[in-house]
Write a structure and sequence with these properties.
Number of helices: 34
Low-confidence stretches: 24-29
Helix content: 40-55%
Oligomer: single chain
Mean pLDDT: 90
Strand content: 5-15%
Number of strands: 18
Length: 811
């Protein structure tokens, strides 16, 4: 037997060894997948995908998984994925956000890879962007592109028709029109294009920036007014410096007083067009932005189509200067690629980074007209960035692209400080009401500087906070859980149970176990963690720091948005819940009839309540559109001259020619949201219908025999019997209204605009948690909201004994 088994053992041994060898071989030659995250749009994304495919061909065994996110929440996603341990290997990054990650050791310094990269020289890149992406002598982003925003797109046709020479970039601006300079004076040029219709309404303007603050920031920089004393490591906010106030006020007056550009209300209300679209439709002659708009411009202005007109770019005007010497500065965009510290393949991640932000990647992006290469030599090469002899006609625009290289000499990058976003959100707060002409630059910038400086001081102090004691925190959490268990279990401990009752009790707990586990993991656990974090400063990347009661102190003493968001939420709650109950009860009474087709009407009224909140918000945005919305059509009439509408314009907008912009005006934004809340009364209607149909019919019959009419029966029978339903609707409606979020988020794009008029309390919590990465502070806000809702609910339940009638309790 032993001799027979020996050959079999050898066979199995050889098979096993072969399998192991194959496994080892497959592991040794396993492909590596690198994850790449970007925020680029469709055209750029298509180009990047092609670059990645070429990289895979040039580097067999390496695969690139491309992930795309919207820029609005892109950086928050990078923070969260890093904290969760699932961050990409290579990420697209800009100067405003990298320092936050770099100071928390979430990004790898790139200098370590330079020596092992033959042919690589960081000096080939534009120096201003390299300097901006360097912190404490370490480069954290390899620049891909630079995008000066001091570029002016201009319509050659409109210039030719007006008899004005094409701008060559040598023009200047001052705080008044200088007609003697003609085309060399920017304000005079703008004035030549302004037109009104027969009603005196402006229909054409000379100029518009991509967004209002671009113009203000450009003027402020040219006046030498920077927002901080140090753009990398600031100690002082300079938001209301005299020259900065002067620049911002002039930018607002440019539209609202001089009418040389469309006002913020006119731009947003004109068929909801962007200023780029207004340029394409020849409503404005000049448009300021970065070079990234070129692909869209080419798409909308194709040679040979009816919409096409000749266009080009030049340098935006310089400030004439206080001493007669022109001063030219402008903000700039730019981006590049960084390597997350969590990558398992740093050398391969660098290889991909260098490929994307090197000659191959830059050339592809440049030829597509998307991005000015950060390597200057490529930016000066014909057929790459500059039009060449073989460049297709459509891609030759703009022909004067060489000006982008000159513009780099005047760029000023945004603050790169890790505190930048949190502080700038405060000194830029509510600027939309300045652009709308509803306040002055001095007033709003002075208010903003105080809260921005306080925030900067707080952030600098937090760097010295002690670490959070997790042992003590865990002990407190355990004590809370044990206290809750004791509260439930101890009252039953002394009770004697029969054998049958014990068996039933065990069975009951078995059935409850899944729910208990789920409640502990997904409800109780997060609540306890939020309670602990409410005493800490935690950005989910760096270790939590002990802050004690400072979060709550900040909420009640120094948070500029807390009281306003609470007041706004309270007003919304009172009116939306009241109107919701009245409207739902009214509908239920109307539809509680035994008539033909009533089921269809019930369905039609109920459908909006189950419609997506985002879809509903987009519909209402069209209804409230100032120029062609349904509401203003009903108020102003087809020609915009009905007395009710004109009276509203005078009262709200202080201008009879401006239709009310319901969602962008501070005084009307909240009423508009309250009106929107009525959209969902169908859900309450179903509850009231159930309540009405549960009222015994003999009560109505008895009341009728007593001579009660419709109103008397409603007051004496319907309302008392519906009080439990009304109470339920009030409780659930109040809790839901205090947590209102979606409508305000969609309408204001998460900002609470205008001037925090739509900043509901939950939106404020969201902003703290996911836009400012302040999880500790957001947790404190969440607990404040929880306590407020709990107290109001308990008060309601206490008061309900006086007015809510339960038939089962009647004696």
């Amino acid at each position: 037997m032993g001799s027979r088994r020996t050959p079999m053992k050898k066979l199995f041994s050889r098979i096993a060894l072969g399998v192991v060898a194959l496994l080892l071989a497959s592991l040794s030659s396993a492909d590596v997948t690198l994850r790449l995250s970007v925020w680029d749009g469709d055209k750029a994304l298509e180009t990047i995908r092609g670059i990645c495919q070429q990289f895979e061909k040039d580097n067999p065994g390496i695969h690139v998984k491309l992930e795309n996110y919207d820029y609005t929440l892109y950086h928050q996603k990078m923070i969260i994925t890093y904290a969760a341990g699932v961050a990409p290997d290579v990420v697209m990054m800009d100067g405003s956000h990298y320092q936050f990650l770099a100071t928390r050791h979430a990004l790898l310094p790139l200098n370590q890879f330079f020596a092992s990269s033959p042919g690589f020289d960081i000096k080939d890149y534009y120096k201003p962007i390299v300097d901006s992406y360097t912190f404490h002598d370490q480069l954290y982003i390899l620049p891909r592109d630079i995008a000066p925003i001091g570029l002016m797109y201009y319509n050659k046709k409109m210039f030719k028709d007006a008899g004005i020479p094409y701008p060559d970039g040598s023009w200047t601006w001052d705080f008044h029109i200088r007609p003697e300079l003609k085309e060399k004076d920017f304000l005079w040029v703008c004035q030549q294009f302004v037109k009104k219709d027969e009603r005196g309404k402006y229909i054409q303007w000379g100029y518009a920036p991509s967004y209002p603050q671009l113009q203000a920031d450009t003027y402020a920089l040219q006046l030498g007014a920077y927002p901080y004393d140090n753009m990398a490591e600031p100690t002082k906010v300079l938001a209301d410096a005299p020259d900065r106030v002067k620049a911002f006020q002039f930018a607002a007056d440019f539209a609202n007083v001089l009418h040389l550009e469309p006002s913020n209300l006119e731009a947003s209300g004109s068929l909801m067009l962007t200023t780029q679209q207004m340029f394409v439709q020849q409503k404005i002659a000049m448009y300021q932005n970065g070079i990234w708009d070129v692909p869209n411009m080419r798409k909308m202005l194709k040679p040979g189509t009816p919409e096409w007109f000749d266009w080009d770019i030049c340098l935006a005007p310089a400030y004439a200067g206080k001493d007669g010497k022109p001063v030219r500065r402008s903000t700039t965009g730019g981006s590049g690629y960084a390597i997350m510290a969590s990558t398992k393949n740093p050398s391969l991640a660098w290889k991909l980074t260098r490929y994307l932000a090197g000659p191959v990647g830059m050339t592809a992006m440049a030829k597509a007209g998307i991005a000015q290469p950060a390597i200057r030599q490529l930016a000066l090469t014909k057929g790459v960035w500059l039009p060449g002899p073989d460049t297709p006609l459509e891609e030759q625009y703009p022909r004067n692209r060489i000006v982008t290289d000159e513009a780099v000499n005047y760029v000023v990058f945004d603050a790169t400080t890790q505190f930048g976003i949190s502080v700038s959100d405060r000194y830029n707060k509510g600027l939309e009401i300045l652009w709308n002409g509803q306040t002055t630059a001095q007033k709003i910038l002075s208010e903003n500087e105080k809260i921005a400086q306080q925030r900067l001081d707080d952030l600098r102090k937090q760097e010295a906070l002690p670490p959070f004691n997790w042992v003590l925190g865990g002990a407190i959490a355990a004590l809370i859980v044990l206290s809750m268990v004791a509260f439930v279990y101890l009252p039953e401990r002394g009770r004697r149970l029969t054998r049958l009752e014990k068996g039933e009790s065990k069975s009951g707990y078995k059935f409850l176990t899944p729910w208990i586990v789920g409640a502990v993991i997904f409800t109780l656990g997060p609540m306890i963690l939020a309670l602990l974090m409410s005493f800490a400063e935690w950005d989910i990347i760096a270790p939590a720091k002990w802050r004690g009661l400072a979060n709550f102190q900040e909420i009640f003493q120094s948070d500029p948005s807390f009281y306003k968001s609470m007041i706004i939420t309270a007003i919304y709650t009172v009116f939306s819940v009241t109107f919701g109950i009245i409207g739902a009860l009214g509908l239920a009474l109307l539809l509680n009839q035994k008539v033909r087709g009533v089921a269809l009407y019930r369905t039609l009224y109920y459908i909006p309540s189950i419609t997506s909140g985002v879809a509903g918000s987009l519909i209402w945005m069209r209804v409230f559109n100032p120029d062609n919305g349904l509401l203003n059509f009903l108020l102003y009439g087809p020609h915009g001259d009905w007395p009710v509408g004109v009276w509203l314009s005078n009262w709200i907008m202080h201008d009879p020619h401006k239709p009310v912009d319901w969602l962008q005006t501070e005084t009307t934004a909240m009423p508009a949201l309250i009106i929107m809340s009525v959209w969902g009364i169908g859900g309450g209607m179903v509850i009231f219908l159930a309540g009405l149909q549960g009222i015994p019919q003999h009560y109505y019959e008895a009341a009728t025999l007593d001579g009660a009419g419709i109103i008397a029966r409603f007051k004496s029978v319907t309302l008392p019997m519906l009080t439990p339903t009304i109470f339920f609707s009030a409780i659930t409606g109040l809790i839901g209204a205090f947590q209102a979020f979606t409508q305000a988020f969609v309408i204001s794009n998460g900002t609470g605009a205008p001037n925090d008029a739509t900043r509901f309390f939950v939106l404020h919590i969201f902003s703290a948690a996911f836009q400012s990465a302040r999880m500790g502070y957001a947790s404190a806000l969440g607990w404040v909201l929880f306590i407020i809702i709990m107290v109001i609910t308990l008060i309601q339940m206490k008061l309900s004994r006086r007015w809510v009638y339960y038939e089962s309790e009647a004696k």
